[in-house]
Amino acid sequence: xxxxxxxxxLNSHQLELVTRARxxxxxxxxxxxPHYDREAIFPAEDFVDLHHEGLLGTAVPATFGGLGLxxxxxxxxxxxLMTKEFAKADLSLARCWEGHCNxxxxxxxxxxxxxxxxxxxxxxxxxxxxxxxxxxxxxxATSEKVAFGTTxxxxxxxxxxxxxxxxxxxxGGAHWAILLVSTAGPGGARHMGGSPESLLLLACDLxxxxxxxxxxxxxxxxxxxxxxxxxxxxxxxxxxENIIGSPGQYLAEGWQTCxxxxxxxxxxxxxxxxxxxxxxxxxxxxxxxxxxIQHHIGQSxxxxxxxxxxxxxxAKMWETGRHDQAQLAGSRARHVMEYLAEDTVKRSIRxxxxxxxxxxxxxxxxxxxxxxxVRHDNDDHxxxxxxxxxxxxxxxxxxxxx
Length: 402
Fold this sequence. Notes:
Blueprint: H1 2-8, H2 12-39, H3 44-52, H4 77-89, H5 91-110, H6 113-126, E1 130-133, E2 149-155, E3 158-168, E4 176-182, E5 199-205, E6 211-214, E7 229-239, H7 249-252, H8 260-284, H9 291-319, H10 323-352, H11 362-373, H12 379-390
Parallel strand pairs: 1-4
Antiparallel strand pairs: 2-3, 3-7, 4-5, 6-7
Helix pairs in contact: 2-4, 4-5, 4-8, 5-8, 8-9, 8-10, 8-11, 9-10, 10-11, 10-12
């Protein structure tokens, strides 16, 4: 399969990192995943292990003690393959890991030297974890009693943040969060009504007593272990020294685009695990002679192989400096991988039957997790954005606004 040729392109150091990630995922993370899923809690023990293995600084530059992986560091495929390995064990863990690594990429690209020195050393040496929060839905769902949204006000020496953020991944587990907020009012980054220059990135110490985590809202079908609770800010002060980049820089430079294929890597992990489970299952049940099962297994293998091809294709663009092309290709890879992963999971269930959806089957959890995670972006809007780009129309490559 293409995964073999992809691994063959890695050098010995890159291969060693991916192998370490796979060993952790198989030997420790996979067995913990059902507990984190049932209790809807952050995978804290997994991140302790990541720190002890020296992997928490994977996206931290080598000059600051990290491993130096990332899209703008010319070495991103090993990072995505590590994410894929974690996703095979636990999609929720992979999402929390994505948020941490993406935060490191943002600090590396937009932070000051003083910020990098301060924050990176605490990640590498003390095991501090990060995440980035944007989510501020503009209207309530029919079942919701709480309103979302923040206001950000300029004061002497910094900003004060008030209000609530939803879908706050790693809430209660991460030590720091990059808050995407707007001085124009509620909306985060996706729904903001002001000018792009009103968007700020503020690094927030989550141990501040003005911050409260409300776990009562987060009770979803899947991705429960991301602990994506509601977080409440009550006059939370963010000093000027914690402002990352300049106002509007995140949107102007399209930073979100380098994270989009990272989602595809997680989807690929779900597809590969579902395929491997189904293949082993039908072998154990002696169902290999069934022509319909042969179809499902064959197509699933092709789906996984196609996912590797797309991921490798986009990674090469980032690693060779073709960033403009990589931004659009990343959206295509994410779109394709969503459908490939969903198709593979459904085919795996058909091949294995109803027993594969009985807990603690990993296929049952993958089915639930993937169903929720692919909603992270509206694929209809994503595909329309791809179409707009091909027709030369104005489009938003970061957030796929209609």
